[in-house]
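re: that complex we talked abt at group meeting.

here r the seqs, copy pasted straight from the sheet so there may be weird spacing, ignore it
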Amino acid sequence: MSKKNKTRRPKARLPKGMRDGQAREIRAMNAMLEKIRAVYELYGFEPLETPAFEYSDALGKFLPDQDRPNAGVFSFEDEDKQWLSLRYDLTAPLARYVALNYDGLPKPYRRYATGSVWRNEKPGPGRFRQFTQFDADTVGAPVGAADAEMCMLMADVMEAVGIKRGDYVIRVNNRKILDGLREIVGLADSEHDGKWLTVLRSLDKYDKFGIDGVKLLLGTGRKDDSGDYTKGAELDDNQIQIIVGFVIQFIESLIPLSESNLEEDHDEKLFNKDSAEGPYVLETDDMLEEWRENIFHESEIGLQGVQELEDMLNLFESAGYGTLRIQIDPSVIRGLEYYTGPVFEAEVTFDVKNDKGQVIQFGSVGGGGRYDGLVARFKGIEIPATGMSIGVSRLYTALQALGELEDETTGPMLVLVMDKERIADYQKMTQELRAAGIRCEMYVGGSGMRAQMKYADKRGAPCVIIQGDDERNAEEEMVTIKDLVEGSELSKQITDNKEWREGRPAQFSVKRDELVEAVRLVLKRHTGQEG
RNA sequence: GCCGCUGUAGCUCAGUUGGUUAGAGCGCCUGAUUGUGGAUCAGGAGGUCAUCUGUUCAAUUCAGAUCAGCGGUACCA
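got the structure back, here u go
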Protein backbone atom coordinates (compact mmCIF):
# COMPACT_ATOMS: atom_id res chain seq x y z
CA MET A 1 0.00 0.00 0.00
CA SER A 2 1.54 3.23 -1.01
CA LYS A 3 0.58 6.53 0.45
CA LYS A 4 -0.88 7.58 -2.85
CA ASN A 5 -3.74 5.15 -2.39
CA LYS A 6 -4.94 7.08 0.59
CA THR A 7 -8.54 8.12 0.09
CA ARG A 8 -9.00 11.81 -0.31
CA ARG A 9 -11.45 12.94 2.34
CA PRO A 10 -12.75 16.41 3.01
CA LYS A 11 -11.20 17.82 6.13
CA ALA A 12 -13.74 18.47 8.84
CA ARG A 13 -13.27 22.08 9.73
CA LEU A 14 -15.14 25.10 10.95
CA PRO A 15 -15.39 28.11 8.63
CA LYS A 16 -13.29 31.01 9.78
CA GLY A 17 -15.05 33.25 12.24
CA MET A 18 -17.88 30.76 12.84
CA ARG A 19 -18.70 28.80 15.95
CA ASP A 20 -20.58 25.67 16.91
CA GLY A 21 -22.87 25.89 19.89
CA GLN A 22 -23.11 23.09 22.39
CA ALA A 23 -25.97 22.12 24.64
CA ARG A 24 -24.67 23.82 27.75
CA GLU A 25 -23.98 27.08 25.98
CA ILE A 26 -27.27 27.07 24.09
CA ARG A 27 -29.24 26.52 27.27
CA ALA A 28 -27.47 29.31 29.09
CA MET A 29 -27.82 31.56 26.05
CA ASN A 30 -31.54 30.84 25.75
CA ALA A 31 -32.04 31.53 29.43
CA MET A 32 -30.27 34.84 28.97
CA LEU A 33 -32.27 35.74 25.86
CA GLU A 34 -35.44 34.95 27.74
CA LYS A 35 -34.49 37.38 30.50
CA ILE A 36 -33.80 40.10 27.99
CA ARG A 37 -37.02 39.41 26.16
CA ALA A 38 -38.98 39.69 29.38
CA VAL A 39 -37.59 43.18 29.97
CA TYR A 40 -38.45 44.29 26.43
CA GLU A 41 -41.96 42.95 26.83
CA LEU A 42 -42.28 44.70 30.15
CA TYR A 43 -41.42 47.96 28.44
CA GLY A 44 -44.16 47.37 25.91
CA PHE A 45 -42.18 46.41 22.81
CA GLU A 46 -43.64 43.99 20.27
CA PRO A 47 -41.69 41.17 18.66
CA LEU A 48 -40.83 41.32 14.98
CA GLU A 49 -39.01 38.92 12.70
CA THR A 50 -37.47 39.83 9.39
CA PRO A 51 -35.55 37.54 7.03
CA ALA A 52 -31.84 36.82 7.17
CA PHE A 53 -31.18 38.54 3.87
CA GLU A 54 -32.53 41.58 2.14
CA TYR A 55 -32.06 43.26 -1.19
CA SER A 56 -28.66 44.82 -0.92
CA ASP A 57 -29.83 48.35 -1.63
CA ALA A 58 -32.21 48.12 1.32
CA LEU A 59 -29.35 47.51 3.72
CA GLY A 60 -27.83 50.89 3.16
CA LYS A 61 -24.40 52.06 2.40
CA PHE A 62 -22.64 48.74 2.15
CA LEU A 63 -23.74 47.92 -1.32
CA PRO A 64 -21.84 45.30 -3.21
CA ASP A 65 -19.78 46.98 -5.86
CA GLN A 66 -18.56 45.31 -9.00
CA ASP A 67 -15.04 44.69 -7.79
CA ARG A 68 -15.72 43.52 -4.30
CA PRO A 69 -19.33 42.35 -4.01
CA ASN A 70 -18.61 40.83 -0.62
CA ALA A 71 -16.71 43.59 1.11
CA GLY A 72 -18.19 43.94 4.56
CA VAL A 73 -21.31 41.96 3.80
CA PHE A 74 -22.00 38.52 2.36
CA SER A 75 -23.81 39.01 -0.91
CA PHE A 76 -24.96 36.99 -3.88
CA GLU A 77 -26.75 37.69 -7.11
CA ASP A 78 -30.22 36.24 -7.51
CA GLU A 79 -31.50 34.57 -10.70
CA ASP A 80 -33.13 37.83 -11.69
CA LYS A 81 -29.81 39.68 -11.42
CA GLN A 82 -30.74 41.41 -8.21
CA TRP A 83 -28.20 41.55 -5.41
CA LEU A 84 -29.09 40.14 -2.02
CA SER A 85 -27.08 40.48 1.18
CA LEU A 86 -27.13 38.81 4.56
CA ARG A 87 -28.19 41.41 7.10
CA TYR A 88 -25.34 42.93 9.08
CA ASP A 89 -27.57 44.41 11.77
CA LEU A 90 -31.24 44.49 12.71
CA THR A 91 -31.79 48.19 12.27
CA ALA A 92 -31.60 48.41 8.50
CA PRO A 93 -34.20 45.63 8.09
CA LEU A 94 -36.39 47.48 10.59
CA ALA A 95 -36.18 50.64 8.50
CA ARG A 96 -37.20 48.61 5.45
CA TYR A 97 -40.07 47.01 7.35
CA VAL A 98 -41.36 50.32 8.66
CA ALA A 99 -41.15 51.93 5.23
CA LEU A 100 -43.06 48.99 3.73
CA ASN A 101 -45.79 48.87 6.34
CA TYR A 102 -45.83 52.45 7.46
CA ASP A 103 -49.52 53.17 7.03
CA GLY A 104 -50.69 50.20 9.04
CA LEU A 105 -48.32 50.57 11.97
CA PRO A 106 -49.13 52.36 15.19
CA LYS A 107 -46.96 55.45 15.56
CA PRO A 108 -44.70 55.38 17.44
CA TYR A 109 -43.90 51.81 16.47
CA ARG A 110 -42.00 49.90 19.12
CA ARG A 111 -40.52 46.52 18.36
CA TYR A 112 -37.85 44.13 19.58
CA ALA A 113 -36.03 41.60 17.45
CA THR A 114 -33.27 39.05 17.83
CA GLY A 115 -31.33 36.90 15.44
CA SER A 116 -28.06 36.25 13.72
CA VAL A 117 -26.32 38.95 11.77
CA TRP A 118 -23.30 38.46 9.50
CA ARG A 119 -20.31 40.58 8.70
CA ASN A 120 -17.77 39.59 6.14
CA GLU A 121 -14.64 40.88 7.78
CA LYS A 122 -11.62 39.45 9.46
CA PRO A 123 -12.61 37.90 12.76
CA GLY A 124 -10.69 39.13 15.76
CA PRO A 125 -10.54 38.42 19.46
CA GLY A 126 -14.13 37.85 20.50
CA ARG A 127 -15.35 38.92 17.08
CA PHE A 128 -17.03 36.51 14.75
CA ARG A 129 -18.50 36.62 11.28
CA GLN A 130 -21.86 35.46 12.57
CA PHE A 131 -23.23 36.67 15.84
CA THR A 132 -26.48 37.43 17.58
CA GLN A 133 -27.99 40.79 18.37
CA PHE A 134 -31.03 41.61 20.44
CA ASP A 135 -32.50 45.00 19.62
CA ALA A 136 -35.29 47.26 20.79
CA ASP A 137 -36.26 50.33 18.78
CA THR A 138 -38.87 53.06 18.80
CA VAL A 139 -39.73 54.53 15.42
CA GLY A 140 -41.65 57.77 15.15
CA ALA A 141 -40.84 59.42 18.47
CA PRO A 142 -39.02 62.75 18.74
CA VAL A 143 -35.91 63.16 20.87
CA GLY A 144 -36.41 62.91 24.60
CA ALA A 145 -38.40 60.30 26.44
CA ALA A 146 -37.87 57.57 23.86
CA ASP A 147 -34.10 57.97 24.09
CA ALA A 148 -34.05 58.15 27.87
CA GLU A 149 -36.15 55.03 27.94
CA MET A 150 -33.58 53.19 25.83
CA CYS A 151 -30.89 53.94 28.39
CA MET A 152 -33.00 52.80 31.30
CA LEU A 153 -33.99 49.74 29.32
CA MET A 154 -30.34 48.86 28.79
CA ALA A 155 -29.62 49.29 32.48
CA ASP A 156 -32.55 47.05 33.35
CA VAL A 157 -31.38 44.42 30.86
CA MET A 158 -27.93 44.39 32.42
CA GLU A 159 -29.38 43.74 35.83
CA ALA A 160 -31.94 41.25 34.54
CA VAL A 161 -29.22 39.00 33.15
CA GLY A 162 -27.33 39.12 36.44
CA ILE A 163 -24.84 41.97 36.23
CA LYS A 164 -24.88 43.86 39.48
CA ARG A 165 -25.34 47.57 39.73
CA GLY A 166 -21.88 49.08 39.59
CA ASP A 167 -20.52 46.24 37.46
CA TYR A 168 -21.85 47.95 34.36
CA VAL A 169 -22.56 51.47 33.25
CA ILE A 170 -24.63 53.06 30.51
CA ARG A 171 -22.68 55.97 29.09
CA VAL A 172 -24.60 58.68 27.30
CA ASN A 173 -23.54 61.42 24.95
CA ASN A 174 -25.15 63.53 22.26
CA ARG A 175 -23.94 63.90 18.72
CA LYS A 176 -25.05 67.53 18.65
CA ILE A 177 -22.66 68.36 21.45
CA LEU A 178 -19.84 67.02 19.36
CA ASP A 179 -21.07 69.00 16.38
CA GLY A 180 -21.00 72.06 18.61
CA LEU A 181 -17.48 71.28 19.68
CA ARG A 182 -16.54 71.02 16.02
CA GLU A 183 -17.81 74.54 15.43
CA ILE A 184 -15.93 75.91 18.38
CA VAL A 185 -12.56 74.52 17.40
CA GLY A 186 -13.11 75.84 13.87
CA LEU A 187 -13.38 72.57 12.00
CA ALA A 188 -17.00 72.97 10.90
CA ASP A 189 -16.02 73.40 7.29
CA SER A 190 -16.55 70.28 5.20
CA GLU A 191 -12.93 70.37 4.08
CA HIS A 192 -12.11 69.28 7.65
CA ASP A 193 -14.35 66.23 7.58
CA GLY A 194 -11.44 63.83 7.65
CA LYS A 195 -9.68 65.64 10.43
CA TRP A 196 -12.82 65.83 12.53
CA LEU A 197 -13.36 62.09 12.06
CA THR A 198 -9.89 61.56 13.50
CA VAL A 199 -10.76 63.82 16.42
CA LEU A 200 -13.87 61.80 17.20
CA ARG A 201 -11.98 58.53 17.02
CA SER A 202 -9.41 60.00 19.37
CA LEU A 203 -12.10 61.00 21.86
CA ASP A 204 -13.56 57.53 21.63
CA LYS A 205 -10.28 56.21 23.03
CA TYR A 206 -10.56 58.16 26.25
CA ASP A 207 -11.68 55.24 28.39
CA LYS A 208 -8.93 53.12 26.89
CA PHE A 209 -5.93 55.41 26.94
CA GLY A 210 -6.91 58.17 29.35
CA ILE A 211 -6.59 61.89 28.84
CA ASP A 212 -2.89 61.73 27.98
CA GLY A 213 -3.54 59.21 25.25
CA VAL A 214 -6.28 61.39 23.82
CA LYS A 215 -3.96 64.41 23.86
CA LEU A 216 -1.40 62.48 21.83
CA LEU A 217 -4.03 61.33 19.36
CA LEU A 218 -5.36 64.84 18.96
CA GLY A 219 -1.85 66.09 18.36
CA THR A 220 0.97 64.25 16.65
CA GLY A 221 -0.06 60.66 17.22
CA ARG A 222 0.44 57.80 19.58
CA LYS A 223 2.54 54.68 19.70
CA ASP A 224 1.00 51.78 21.60
CA ASP A 225 2.66 49.03 23.57
CA SER A 226 2.73 46.59 20.70
CA GLY A 227 4.70 49.11 18.67
CA ASP A 228 1.90 50.12 16.36
CA TYR A 229 1.71 53.81 15.58
CA THR A 230 -1.55 55.70 15.23
CA LYS A 231 -1.45 58.94 13.33
CA GLY A 232 -2.87 61.91 15.22
CA ALA A 233 -5.35 64.60 14.21
CA GLU A 234 -2.61 67.23 14.27
CA LEU A 235 -4.64 69.93 15.98
CA ASP A 236 -2.93 72.98 17.39
CA ASP A 237 -2.47 73.44 21.13
CA ASN A 238 -5.42 75.76 21.47
CA GLN A 239 -7.80 73.34 19.81
CA ILE A 240 -6.51 70.47 21.92
CA GLN A 241 -6.97 72.52 25.04
CA ILE A 242 -10.60 73.26 24.22
CA ILE A 243 -11.44 69.63 23.50
CA VAL A 244 -9.57 68.27 26.47
CA GLY A 245 -11.12 70.89 28.71
CA PHE A 246 -14.53 69.80 27.55
CA VAL A 247 -13.83 66.12 28.14
CA ILE A 248 -12.39 66.51 31.62
CA GLN A 249 -15.01 68.95 32.79
CA PHE A 250 -16.44 66.23 35.00
CA ILE A 251 -13.32 66.25 37.14
CA GLU A 252 -14.12 69.88 37.98
CA SER A 253 -17.67 68.88 38.75
CA LEU A 254 -16.84 66.35 41.44
CA ILE A 255 -17.86 67.26 44.95
CA PRO A 256 -17.08 65.35 48.14
CA LEU A 257 -19.71 62.84 49.10
CA SER A 258 -19.93 64.47 52.52
CA GLU A 259 -21.02 67.73 50.94
CA SER A 260 -23.66 66.11 48.80
CA ASN A 261 -27.08 65.35 50.14
CA LEU A 262 -27.02 61.68 49.20
CA GLU A 263 -28.37 59.01 51.46
CA GLU A 264 -26.47 55.89 52.40
CA ASP A 265 -28.01 53.66 49.76
CA HIS A 266 -27.35 56.07 46.94
CA ASP A 267 -27.37 55.14 43.31
CA GLU A 268 -24.46 57.40 42.45
CA LYS A 269 -21.05 56.45 41.20
CA LEU A 270 -18.22 57.40 43.54
CA PHE A 271 -14.93 58.72 42.24
CA ASN A 272 -11.55 59.01 43.88
CA LYS A 273 -9.47 62.13 43.85
CA ASP A 274 -6.16 62.90 45.54
CA SER A 275 -7.62 64.39 48.64
CA ALA A 276 -8.58 63.46 52.15
CA GLU A 277 -12.11 64.57 51.63
CA GLY A 278 -13.10 61.10 50.65
CA PRO A 279 -15.11 59.77 47.77
CA TYR A 280 -16.62 62.20 45.34
CA VAL A 281 -19.83 62.26 43.43
CA LEU A 282 -20.43 63.85 40.09
CA GLU A 283 -22.57 66.96 40.09
CA THR A 284 -23.95 66.51 36.63
CA ASP A 285 -25.97 69.71 36.72
CA ASP A 286 -22.82 71.71 37.45
CA MET A 287 -21.08 70.05 34.55
CA LEU A 288 -23.84 70.89 32.10
CA GLU A 289 -23.91 74.45 33.37
CA GLU A 290 -20.17 74.75 32.79
CA TRP A 291 -20.53 73.39 29.29
CA ARG A 292 -23.31 75.80 28.56
CA GLU A 293 -21.58 78.88 29.85
CA ASN A 294 -17.94 78.32 29.13
CA ILE A 295 -17.80 76.02 26.14
CA PHE A 296 -20.92 76.03 24.01
CA HIS A 297 -22.13 79.59 24.63
CA GLU A 298 -21.52 80.48 21.01
CA SER A 299 -22.68 77.27 19.40
CA GLU A 300 -26.38 76.85 18.81
CA ILE A 301 -26.15 73.19 17.95
CA GLY A 302 -23.94 72.58 20.96
CA LEU A 303 -26.43 74.22 23.29
CA GLN A 304 -29.18 72.17 21.74
CA GLY A 305 -27.19 69.02 22.49
CA VAL A 306 -26.65 70.09 26.09
CA GLN A 307 -30.36 70.73 26.41
CA GLU A 308 -31.22 67.29 25.03
CA LEU A 309 -28.84 65.70 27.48
CA GLU A 310 -30.29 67.66 30.35
CA ASP A 311 -33.82 66.66 29.40
CA MET A 312 -32.78 63.03 29.44
CA LEU A 313 -30.99 63.46 32.75
CA ASN A 314 -34.12 64.87 34.31
CA LEU A 315 -36.01 61.80 33.20
CA PHE A 316 -33.33 59.52 34.65
CA GLU A 317 -33.43 61.43 37.87
CA SER A 318 -37.15 61.32 38.31
CA ALA A 319 -37.14 57.61 37.46
CA GLY A 320 -34.44 57.07 40.09
CA TYR A 321 -31.56 56.15 37.79
CA GLY A 322 -28.39 57.69 39.21
CA THR A 323 -24.90 57.94 37.79
CA LEU A 324 -24.05 54.48 39.08
CA ARG A 325 -26.29 53.20 36.31
CA ILE A 326 -26.38 55.91 33.67
CA GLN A 327 -23.81 58.63 33.31
CA ILE A 328 -22.90 61.28 30.82
CA ASP A 329 -19.66 60.61 29.03
CA PRO A 330 -18.54 63.03 26.33
CA SER A 331 -16.15 60.44 24.93
CA VAL A 332 -18.91 58.14 23.67
CA ILE A 333 -18.88 58.36 19.89
CA ARG A 334 -20.35 55.33 18.03
CA GLY A 335 -21.73 55.07 14.50
CA LEU A 336 -20.09 58.11 13.01
CA GLU A 337 -22.23 58.54 9.92
CA TYR A 338 -25.33 57.15 11.43
CA TYR A 339 -26.49 58.69 14.65
CA THR A 340 -27.99 62.15 14.80
CA GLY A 341 -28.67 62.89 18.46
CA PRO A 342 -28.29 60.98 21.71
CA VAL A 343 -25.90 58.05 21.60
CA PHE A 344 -25.34 55.53 24.35
CA GLU A 345 -23.28 52.52 25.15
CA ALA A 346 -23.48 49.73 27.71
CA GLU A 347 -20.20 48.61 29.15
CA VAL A 348 -19.17 46.13 31.79
CA THR A 349 -16.77 47.57 34.33
CA PHE A 350 -15.31 44.46 35.89
CA ASP A 351 -12.24 42.62 34.60
CA VAL A 352 -12.95 40.07 31.93
CA LYS A 353 -10.38 37.31 31.60
CA ASN A 354 -9.90 34.86 28.76
CA ASP A 355 -9.29 31.16 29.34
CA LYS A 356 -5.60 31.85 29.78
CA GLY A 357 -6.38 34.13 32.69
CA GLN A 358 -5.34 37.31 30.88
CA VAL A 359 -7.46 40.38 31.47
CA ILE A 360 -8.60 41.47 28.04
CA GLN A 361 -9.93 44.73 26.59
CA PHE A 362 -13.57 43.87 26.58
CA GLY A 363 -15.36 46.90 25.23
CA SER A 364 -19.07 47.42 25.10
CA VAL A 365 -21.81 44.81 25.25
CA GLY A 366 -24.41 47.00 23.61
CA GLY A 367 -25.24 50.43 22.42
CA GLY A 368 -27.55 52.57 20.41
CA GLY A 369 -28.73 56.01 19.62
CA ARG A 370 -30.99 58.18 17.56
CA TYR A 371 -30.99 57.76 13.81
CA ASP A 372 -33.46 60.19 12.37
CA GLY A 373 -32.31 59.68 8.80
CA LEU A 374 -32.68 55.96 8.34
CA VAL A 375 -36.28 55.45 7.29
CA ALA A 376 -36.09 58.58 5.13
CA ARG A 377 -34.02 56.60 2.66
CA PHE A 378 -37.17 54.75 1.68
CA LYS A 379 -39.93 57.21 2.42
CA GLY A 380 -38.50 60.56 1.49
CA ILE A 381 -39.87 62.02 4.69
CA GLU A 382 -37.81 62.04 7.84
CA ILE A 383 -39.10 59.63 10.46
CA PRO A 384 -37.33 59.99 13.80
CA ALA A 385 -36.17 56.79 15.42
CA THR A 386 -34.08 55.66 18.34
CA GLY A 387 -32.96 52.24 19.39
CA MET A 388 -30.49 50.03 21.08
CA SER A 389 -28.78 46.75 20.43
CA ILE A 390 -27.39 44.14 22.76
CA GLY A 391 -24.41 42.13 21.53
CA VAL A 392 -25.64 38.83 22.85
CA SER A 393 -22.45 36.82 22.39
CA ARG A 394 -20.36 39.47 24.05
CA LEU A 395 -22.78 39.80 26.92
CA TYR A 396 -22.68 36.04 27.27
CA THR A 397 -18.89 36.06 27.41
CA ALA A 398 -19.01 38.75 30.06
CA LEU A 399 -21.46 36.74 32.12
CA GLN A 400 -19.20 33.74 31.81
CA ALA A 401 -16.38 35.79 33.26
CA LEU A 402 -18.67 36.78 36.11
CA GLY A 403 -19.53 33.15 36.75
CA GLU A 404 -23.18 34.08 36.41
CA LEU A 405 -24.04 31.21 34.10
CA GLU A 406 -24.94 28.22 36.15
CA ASP A 407 -26.06 25.18 34.26
CA GLU A 408 -28.32 23.14 36.45
CA THR A 409 -29.76 21.08 33.69
CA THR A 410 -29.45 17.39 34.41
CA GLY A 411 -29.60 14.74 31.75
CA PRO A 412 -32.63 12.65 30.99
CA MET A 413 -33.18 9.54 33.03
CA LEU A 414 -32.49 6.35 31.14
CA VAL A 415 -34.42 3.12 30.71
CA LEU A 416 -31.88 0.36 30.11
CA VAL A 417 -32.44 -2.21 27.42
CA MET A 418 -31.58 -5.42 29.22
CA ASP A 419 -33.16 -7.71 26.67
CA LYS A 420 -33.48 -6.62 23.08
CA GLU A 421 -36.50 -8.84 22.59
CA ARG A 422 -38.46 -6.70 25.02
CA ILE A 423 -37.82 -3.24 23.63
CA ALA A 424 -41.58 -2.70 23.43
CA ASP A 425 -41.84 -3.06 27.21
CA TYR A 426 -39.02 -0.61 27.79
CA GLN A 427 -40.54 1.80 25.34
CA LYS A 428 -43.80 1.62 27.24
CA MET A 429 -42.07 2.50 30.51
CA THR A 430 -40.36 5.37 28.79
CA GLN A 431 -43.59 6.78 27.47
CA GLU A 432 -45.25 6.41 30.86
CA LEU A 433 -42.51 8.49 32.41
CA ARG A 434 -42.68 11.05 29.63
CA ALA A 435 -46.43 11.25 30.02
CA ALA A 436 -45.78 12.12 33.64
CA GLY A 437 -43.58 15.01 32.47
CA ILE A 438 -40.32 13.33 33.34
CA ARG A 439 -37.42 13.84 30.96
CA CYS A 440 -36.59 10.33 29.92
CA GLU A 441 -35.18 8.20 27.15
CA MET A 442 -34.77 4.53 26.35
CA TYR A 443 -31.28 3.46 25.38
CA VAL A 444 -31.22 3.33 21.60
CA GLY A 445 -27.61 2.32 21.10
CA GLY A 446 -26.40 -1.20 20.42
CA SER A 447 -24.19 -1.94 23.41
CA GLY A 448 -24.50 -3.98 26.57
CA MET A 449 -25.44 -3.02 30.08
CA ARG A 450 -22.05 -1.76 31.13
CA ALA A 451 -21.89 0.60 28.20
CA GLN A 452 -25.43 1.72 28.92
CA MET A 453 -24.49 2.59 32.49
CA LYS A 454 -21.51 4.58 31.23
CA TYR A 455 -23.78 6.33 28.76
CA ALA A 456 -26.20 7.24 31.55
CA ASP A 457 -23.32 8.59 33.59
CA LYS A 458 -21.97 10.68 30.75
CA ARG A 459 -25.38 12.10 29.97
CA GLY A 460 -25.79 13.15 33.58
CA ALA A 461 -28.82 10.94 34.09
CA PRO A 462 -30.17 11.25 37.62
CA CYS A 463 -31.24 7.61 37.61
CA VAL A 464 -31.74 4.56 35.44
CA ILE A 465 -34.52 2.00 35.19
CA ILE A 466 -33.47 -1.63 35.10
CA GLN A 467 -35.73 -4.55 34.32
CA GLY A 468 -34.01 -7.79 33.45
CA ASP A 469 -35.13 -11.36 33.97
CA ASP A 470 -34.84 -11.11 37.75
CA GLU A 471 -37.34 -8.29 37.98
CA ARG A 472 -39.49 -9.62 35.20
CA ASN A 473 -39.84 -13.10 36.62
CA ALA A 474 -40.40 -12.13 40.23
CA GLU A 475 -43.57 -13.26 41.87
CA GLU A 476 -44.96 -9.85 41.09
CA GLU A 477 -43.40 -7.91 38.20
CA MET A 478 -40.83 -5.44 39.50
CA VAL A 479 -38.50 -2.72 38.20
CA THR A 480 -35.22 -1.59 39.71
CA ILE A 481 -34.41 2.06 40.02
CA LYS A 482 -30.79 2.96 40.44
CA ASP A 483 -30.05 6.40 41.78
CA LEU A 484 -26.87 7.53 40.02
CA VAL A 485 -26.44 10.68 42.06
CA GLU A 486 -26.52 8.86 45.36
CA GLY A 487 -24.46 6.03 43.87
CA SER A 488 -21.76 8.45 42.93
CA GLU A 489 -21.67 9.73 46.50
CA LEU A 490 -21.43 6.21 47.91
CA SER A 491 -18.67 5.25 45.49
CA LYS A 492 -16.33 7.64 47.22
CA GLN A 493 -16.15 5.27 50.16
CA ILE A 494 -15.75 2.11 48.12
CA THR A 495 -12.38 1.26 46.64
CA ASP A 496 -12.92 -2.36 45.76
CA ASN A 497 -14.63 -2.90 42.46
CA LYS A 498 -16.22 -6.18 43.44
CA GLU A 499 -17.77 -4.59 46.47
CA TRP A 500 -18.88 -1.66 44.34
CA ARG A 501 -20.59 -3.85 41.80
CA GLU A 502 -22.05 -6.56 43.97
CA GLY A 503 -23.17 -4.17 46.64
CA ARG A 504 -25.39 -2.53 44.04
CA PRO A 505 -25.49 0.72 45.95
CA ALA A 506 -28.28 3.25 45.75
CA GLN A 507 -30.76 1.04 44.01
CA PHE A 508 -34.07 -0.44 44.98
CA SER A 509 -36.94 -2.29 43.40
CA VAL A 510 -40.60 -1.41 43.26
CA LYS A 511 -43.63 -2.97 41.73
CA ARG A 512 -43.95 -2.31 38.02
CA ASP A 513 -47.06 -0.20 38.41
CA GLU A 514 -45.37 2.00 41.02
CA LEU A 515 -42.61 2.96 38.61
CA VAL A 516 -43.63 6.54 37.92
CA GLU A 517 -44.29 7.39 41.55
CA ALA A 518 -40.97 5.95 42.69
CA VAL A 519 -39.03 7.81 40.00
CA ARG A 520 -40.74 11.02 41.01
CA LEU A 521 -39.52 10.63 44.55
CA VAL A 522 -35.94 10.06 43.45
CA LEU A 523 -35.98 13.07 41.15
CA LYS A 524 -37.52 15.25 43.77
CA ARG A 525 -34.73 14.32 46.14
CA HIS A 526 -31.93 15.30 43.76
CA THR A 527 -33.07 17.88 41.31
CA GLY A 528 -36.17 19.42 42.73
CA GLN A 529 -37.76 18.41 39.46
CA GLU A 530 -41.37 17.42 39.86
CA GLY A 531 -43.47 15.29 37.61
C1' G B 1 -4.57 46.35 7.72
C1' C B 2 -0.25 46.93 11.35
C1' C B 3 2.86 45.02 15.71
C1' G B 4 4.07 40.92 18.93
C1' C B 5 3.68 35.83 20.69
C1' U B 6 2.40 30.72 19.63
C1' G B 7 1.63 26.21 16.26
C1' U B 8 4.18 18.42 18.25
C1' A B 9 -1.97 12.96 19.81
C1' G B 10 -8.95 14.91 21.13
C1' C B 11 -6.85 18.38 25.46
C1' U B 12 -2.39 20.26 28.32
C1' C B 13 2.54 19.99 27.21
C1' A B 14 7.70 17.51 27.02
C1' G B 15 11.50 16.30 23.41
C1' U B 16 15.00 15.98 19.27
C1' U B 17 22.79 20.31 20.31
C1' G B 18 19.82 17.79 12.60
C1' G B 19 20.39 10.82 12.51
C1' U B 20 16.45 4.56 11.95
C1' U B 21 10.48 2.80 15.56
C1' A B 22 8.45 11.11 18.40
C1' G B 23 6.94 10.74 24.34
C1' A B 24 4.03 11.85 29.11
C1' G B 25 -0.39 13.14 31.83
C1' C B 26 -5.48 13.58 31.05
C1' G B 27 -9.32 11.91 27.69
C1' C B 28 -11.09 7.88 24.32
C1' C B 29 -11.80 2.36 23.11
C1' U B 30 -11.35 -2.99 24.89
C1' G B 31 -10.78 -6.50 28.80
C1' A B 32 -10.29 -8.21 34.09
C1' U B 33 -16.50 -8.20 35.67
C1' U B 34 -21.84 -13.51 30.27
C1' G B 35 -26.92 -7.83 34.91
C1' U B 36 -24.16 -2.33 37.07
C1' G B 37 -21.56 4.25 36.05
C1' G B 38 -16.76 5.41 40.08
C1' A B 39 -11.59 3.50 41.67
C1' U B 40 -7.57 -0.01 40.28
C1' C B 41 -4.84 -3.07 36.85
C1' A B 42 -3.74 -4.83 31.79
C1' G B 43 -4.02 -3.90 26.70
C1' G B 44 -5.33 -0.74 22.37
C1' A B 45 -6.53 3.19 18.87
C1' G B 46 -4.93 7.98 17.70
C1' G B 47 0.60 12.12 14.96
C1' U B 48 2.35 13.61 6.83
C1' C B 49 5.70 17.21 14.63
C1' A B 50 0.50 23.64 10.85
C1' U B 51 1.71 24.10 5.30
C1' C B 52 5.16 25.04 1.43
C1' U B 53 10.02 26.16 -0.22
C1' G B 54 15.15 26.22 0.78
C1' U B 55 20.04 24.54 3.24
C1' U B 56 21.87 19.41 4.10
C1' C B 57 24.01 12.73 2.81
C1' A B 58 19.78 13.38 6.26
C1' A B 59 14.78 18.42 8.54
C1' U B 60 9.68 17.56 13.25
C1' U B 61 14.47 20.18 14.70
C1' C B 62 17.96 25.25 10.98
C1' A B 63 16.27 29.49 7.47
C1' G B 64 12.48 31.95 4.62
C1' A B 65 7.55 32.42 3.12
C1' U B 66 2.51 31.20 3.87
C1' C B 67 -1.62 29.82 6.82
C1' A B 68 -4.04 29.44 11.50
C1' G B 69 -4.75 30.75 16.72
C1' C B 70 -3.97 34.23 20.69
C1' G B 71 -2.93 39.31 22.53
C1' G B 72 -2.55 44.50 21.30
C1' U B 73 -3.74 48.23 17.73
C1' A B 74 -6.65 50.08 13.52
C1' C B 75 -11.51 49.78 11.43
C1' C B 76 -16.50 48.91 12.98
C1' A B 77 -23.00 49.72 9.90
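couple things i noticed - Residues 1-7 of chain A have pLDDT under 50 and may be disordered. Chain A is about 35% helix and 20% strand.
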